[in-house]
Amino acid sequence: MPRARRLATGIYSTSMALGVGLAAGTAQPVTDHLGGWRVALSVWGVAALALVAAMIGVRATGRGMPRADGRRRRVSLPLREKRAWFVSAVYCVPMFLGFGVIAWLPSLFMEHGIGSGLAAFYLVLFQGVQLVSMLTLTPLTDRTPKRRGVFATVMLAAALGLLLLSLQPHAWALPGALLAGFGIGGASSLALVTVQDEATSPEDATRLSAMSMLLSFTAGAASPFLMGALSDLTGGLGPSFWLCFAVSAAGILLLVGMHPAERRTHSTTSFS
């Protein structure tokens, strides 16, 4: 059921963005009223532990788990397949940008004279507009098999937003945050659609999603570190956001490898 899969994709992506936006919006008030950043961090640490406990409880009951048919299949990562590397690259770009911008956007604003409260508000807007793009663009792929136009829209929006934030973080804070959020959020959600387009079976989807998420979340984890290290070397966050702009511009080149979903041959061509 393609529509059910894309609906689930939208729910998954939106839930991630909503959680980050909620954390960003409450961190500063909790810090101000409950005694510092350590308390704010602890609040979300306790919430994370509660979620883990709830998931363990649900798993123990067997609810929502597929029925085992008694057969075990060995599923390996498709490391030698070109399409797997393409899907991974499509997913790595928004994850690198998303994690890096979330980590350093408020600091960029404060570095250029914007107060901490307003900087946090801009971060919430950045996350909020991601919800809009995730909720609207993913269902749009049910209506058209063409991918290049949708991906071009979000990648160009992300690149333009990051360009504004790199050039004038103070003057163009609002349009920069909104455009970057719309583009990055839409690209991260549509990257999951690309996995569905390329998969030939549920098992194949597992292999593709496992590899793409392994690489993309690694890229996402590395992004804040690289941006922070670059900031230390240069004395400011400007070059770090220029790096993000360069990554977003390079991501536009991935459009060359995209084709309409209905014309895919699902080739499993391997590297020699």
UniProtKB/TrEMBL annotation:
Positions of transmembrane segments: 39-62, 83-105, 117-137, 149-167, 173-195, 207-227, 239-258
Highest taxon, organism lineage: Bacteria
Pfam families: MFS_1
Gene Ontology cellular component annotations, sorted alphabetically: plasma membrane
Compartment(s) where it occurs, according to its Swiss-Prot or TrEMBL record: Cell membrane
MF annotations from Gene Ontology: transmembrane transporter activity
Limits of the Major facilitator superfamily (MFS) profile domain: 1-263
Keywords, comma-separated and alphabetical: Membrane, Transmembrane, Transmembrane helix
Membrane topology annotation: Multi-pass membrane protein
Name the record gives this protein: Major facilitator superfamily (MFS) profile domain-containing protein
Annotated organism of origin: Thermocrispum agreste
